[in-house]
Amino acid sequence: MKFQILNADYTYSDDLPVIRLYGRDESGNSICCHVPGFEPYFYAKAKPELSTILLEKFKEHIKRIEQVKRFEPVGYFKNKTSMLKIILYDPKSVPIIRDDIRKMVDEIYETDILFRNRYMVDKGLGGMGWAKAEPEKDTISNEVISDLKITSGNVEPVEILKNAPLRHLAFDIECLPLNGAMPVPETSPIVLISLAFAPDFEGKKTLVLVGKDAKADDETESCGSEEAMLKRFFEIIKKYDPDILVGYNSNSFDIPYIVDRMRTLNRKGARIEPIAGRDGRDLYYKKIGNVTRISVMGRIAVDVLPLLRREFSLKQYTLRNTAKELLGSEKLEIPFLEMEDYWKDNGEKLSKFIEYSRRDSELALLFLLKLQLIDKYIALARVSGTLLQDILDGGQTQMVESLMLREYMKNDRVLPARPTGEMSDERYDEGEELAGAEVLPPKKGLLENIVILDYKSLYPTIMMAHNLCYTTEVVGERPADVIVAPTGGVFVSSKVVKGIVPSILEDLLNRRQETRAKMKTANEEEKRVLDATQLALKILLNSFYGYSGYTRARLYSLTLASAVTSFGRENILRTKDLIEKDIREIILKDGKAFKKDENISGKRIGLSVVYGDTDSVFVHLADKEINFDEAQLVGNTIANTVTDSLVKPMELVFDSFARRAIFLAKKRYALLIQEKTAKGLKEKIKVKGMETVRRDWCELTTKTIEKVLELVLKEGKVDDAVLLVKNTINSIKTIDSTSPLFDDLILTRQYTKKIESYRNRQPHITVIEKLQKRGIISHVGDRIPFVIVAGNAIFVDRAEDPEYAQKKNLPIDVDYYINKQILPPVERILSDFGVTREMLRGMGERKVQTETKQKQLFEF
């Protein structure tokens, strides 16, 4: 029997721990597989004779102790160290005895690895990976919700590319604001629950449950009461048996509200059993700071809102705005303060309320499926072996540690426990010494003909090239063949021993290349899985450097992290010297490129590095008439020459050609990129660090900057750009709440912590407080929209909710938008062309360029 692993936990049978694997098979059956016989264990660095003492002292917990040889976690060692493998009866015994044992031994290892994870690592299984099980007997208790229930002592990984036919259930709740107050589960009922299914449920794509007697149809179900509606909701979950539970802000709002509301109703005599997990347990949540974790074992709880925040940069993440921007769909709107009236009505208003609710769950499902939001996370689970729910909950560290634990085990190394809070703080203070990447100062102003060269996977290839790893760091005896980093860190070369991290990175890199090659001949379904896989491999490749300097990582090495960045800094400076001092110029002749020492006559292209940033080098080509093909030829020649001087697998490649570029400062520039397509050359503007890509500016700023860059970069028309800004300023002066330009003045800020945690007053917090008084609540994590209105109050007090400002026809603070939003970014771009703020405001004149002057512009 083969099935894809969705989740895992453990239970007990005859007082012994039993692993449970939840999944779905190729035919669409949900499966729960019990695996008895796996034993919990951890390691202790201690002398063998201590075994007898430990067995006697902890005989209730320790089943047996094996004497083993293992390498310690960090450092190069010729010989393994004597350790004790302490095997227990019960996983719950580990936290009970580990602190006492720590006092009796030199060190303990792997004491905080979850039992289910320990099993999957040891058996080569992983989240969303496929497993093959030989069923032995069916002794699984009835509380497990699954089509097939098996017990097997022999579960093995199996390679299957496609995903199982997963079942998706999206849901959304509507709570009643009583007397205009914000709903709270203690007093405000849940009145509607909308559901959307993929695949269909009993022939239905959607279903709205109504918490009172109401007119019903095929896709609306009248439940008579709130209690009956909630019972029906959990009945449908059990009957439909979804793998993925989907919502929009569901983990932070809908699920906690449902759980808390049921507790309130049950205290008043209701009998609602919120069984949602395949383990037969209740729906459950817990808050850790501002983060809410959902427990629905055997299924995956997917809140699409945080996923959308990770994937898409939007100025507002309201369901209405997100649906419009990403799906081109409209969300039905019902005024918050009128919802009570809509609910009390049994006619047209109630019907509209029901459709409003239905649309919310439909959109949540559309986001997940149409935008393929979890494809990448499924691939990350399969590649790293981490459970999908852990990754969705932000488990990048867990992914790296899952790979490390698997490879450490193969190489007879042990992994340390996670650091304590005190240890993390010490590391944080120490880590402030870690120098970052090298950024070469840019040549400011407007430049023509820039070739951009990129280092492919710079930090991973540095770690591979120089054998940089926790396992190669010299901490004791120093062998003869070592690599010394520019920061002084010493590592043994691959001739002595190949590091575990470089080996993992090499495997990930090779698998990514193989995966991309397979995509060329794959069908659509396979291509989708393969594309997600190659992206997952890329993400993991780039995770290991950051992990090495992460203060809460099990494996932390400032020596390693510093060595990687120091090689990176040395590399970019060396590349600059190689281009400017050794190569210096490229000669083009008959469609070929030659270096200056080849004594070829032809078109000579002088080279100078005008900017460098971590893994990118920007090279100016000193020839006005160069075309794209010639620029690419020059770029490839430079890249190949530099690559030849590097330790493999490091590689510099031609990335793109910018016909024009504006550099304002480090990490702040705009490029007019040329791309070759089947229809010929295509141009696009690429911006980094400027106001078009930063969300703390209003949309009018973004649009104005985009148009200014278009005029300057594409057409070289500085005077037209000045005129555009003047016209924009004039349009602001005449704006009112009915103007179509009003929406472009909306700003947004993220609400990142509770109001009382903000030390200084900020405009978006003012708006949150105003909205609360009007019965509208905002959640931590939301982006709060606001406009600045005119008045005598201080700036932060004049921030207002856009809808309220429009409704009340409040005048806009014209001076703020002109002087703080439009002029500063425009001035930064145009000042190098002699344009002043006074000119932009219409207080000064700039003469129109003559033909000669216009040509000189691009020599600036």
From TrEMBL:
It holds the Pfam family DNA_pol_B_exo1. Its EC number is 2.7.7.7. It comes from the Archaea. It catalyses: DNA(n) + a 2'-deoxyribonucleoside 5'-triphosphate = DNA(n+1) + diphosphate. GO terms for biological process: DNA-templated DNA replication. PROSITE patterns: DNA_POLYMERASE_B. The keyword DNA-binding applies. GO terms for molecular function: DNA binding; DNA-directed DNA polymerase activity; nucleotide binding. Keywords: DNA replication, DNA-binding, DNA-directed DNA polymerase, Nucleotidyltransferase, Transferase. Residues 389-831 form the DNA-directed DNA polymerase family B multifunctional domain. Residues 107-320 form the DNA-directed DNA polymerase family B exonuclease domain. It is an enzyme of class 2 (transferase). Belongs to the DNA polymerase type-B family. This is DNA polymerase. It comes from Candidatus Methanoperedens nitratireducens. The lineage of its organism: Archaea, Methanobacteriati, Methanobacteriota, Stenosarchaea group, Methanomicrobia.
